[in-house]
Amino acid sequence: MASTPPPPPTAATRLVSLDALRGFDMLWILGGDAVIRAAAKTWDVGPLRVTAQQLQHKDWAGFAFYDLIFPLFVFIVGASLVFSLTRLIAQHGRPEAVKRVLRRAAFLFLLGIFYSGGLSSEWPGVRVLGVLQRIALAYAATGLLFCYLKPRALAVCGILMLLGYWGLMAWVPIREVTLSRTALTAHFKAEPTGAQVRELYEGATARVTGRYEPGLNVSNHFDFEYLPGKKYDGAYDPEGVLSTLPAVATCLLGVFAGLLLQRSDRSDRQKILWLVAGGAGAVAVGWLWHLQFPVVKKIWTSSFVLVAGGWSCLLLAGFYTVVDVLHWRRWCEPLVWIGMNPITLYLAANILGFQRIAPRLTGGSVKSFLDQQVAPGMGELALALTALLLMLALARFLYVRKIFLRL
What is the dihedral of CA 397, 115, 52, 341, to 10 degrees? Predict the structure, then answer.
């Protein structure tokens, strides 16, 4: 480990801590979660049980570590674009920066449609919105705002997004009909057709406001009425239209963190303290807001933005301290491999499927032997570890050969 800290970051300096944090974030959905769950089944001990529980999404309201994965990535997108766009604007001007933002956003949006099945199904069986599409839209909106607005104006935009989304969700009247799969199946005593759901929805005459249950809120009803194509949850989508607005606010929180780290007139200690204070404050305000506007990832509530953004700041403070201030980096090299190629690895997991390849190496008799001769569940753990190692091998291969699909 090197003992000499690097100079303060400038617009041209790449923060290794951002790459490592991005890799840490992606690690869990690229195989780390499966390893922990398999280990928890093999050894039924408290710490593993608790960790495995944190690697599952909350059904609706509430917050677990796994609910942080997506917003943390969006947050890091915002922090990273500060450095890339600042440099691009300085070297080539604002028009070139705008072109890059729009080009990359369009490319990522199309990749998202491909990831969700592309055109393999006939319309309307194509999913228009999804995880990559949300990242693309958040990146596009935040990037364009960053190109034209100063920090104070960006802060006003972020606040208006959070308050505006809350106002829409709290005060716009909707039909008193629940569109969740569970409620619809219970109502019709079977899986309903689209025509049946439409008839039930249009036949509802009562109106309600301020409801945040699954399938009974403004965001889900807006998707049902206006979002074309296939919807992940049947009548609506967790990456729906209206909830993209607060996702842009999440990206803006990352921008503010990036602007702080970019400043040369602040010491490392001041930057870390600001990140910690801002993160803790956002978490506290988010949970207070939860009392009126619940913390719900699936509709990306404003309170969720603050809780997730606060934890993202705290994690960034930790990684920045260790990686870029203390300059301890050897431990996080595998995370940097992942963090430099997150989209490529995400697509590879979808197309190739590391967990589909793993049984060819440690399945069959190997898995049976481990389960019977070593410990029950050890075979599943071996499969999960094999899949994780395959992903890391690809990540290192791409990193060493400098093959990067950049956002």
Answer: 30
- Kindly tell me if the per-residue pLDDT of 235 is higher than 90: yes
> Which residues lie closer than 8 Å to 185 by C-beta, 6 or more apart?
191, 192
Q: Which two tokens mark 367? A: 């898995």
Tallying the residues shown for the chain, one arrives at 407
| 61 DSSP β-pair partners | 296
Please report, for residues 115, 317, 395, the alpha-carbon distance to residue 352 in angstroms, rounded to integers and kept in the order given.
12, 35, 14
Give CA–CA dist 178/211, Å, rounded: 10
Integer Cα distance of 112 and 170 in angstroms: 30
Rounded distance between C-alpha atoms, residue 256 and residue 62, angstroms: 25
3-state secondary structure of 230: strand
DSSP reduced 3-state for 296: strand
> Can you spell out the DSSP letters for 21-41?
HHHHHHHIIIIIHHHHHHHHH
Beta carbons of 335 and 23 less than 8 angstroms apart: yes
Dump pLDDT digits (tens) for 287-310. 999 999 999 999 999 999 999 999
Taking CA atoms, 312 is separated from 24, 25, 34, 244, 315, in Å, by 12, 10, 23, 18, 5
User: Do residues 67 and 302 touch, judged by C-beta distance below 8 A?
Assistant: no
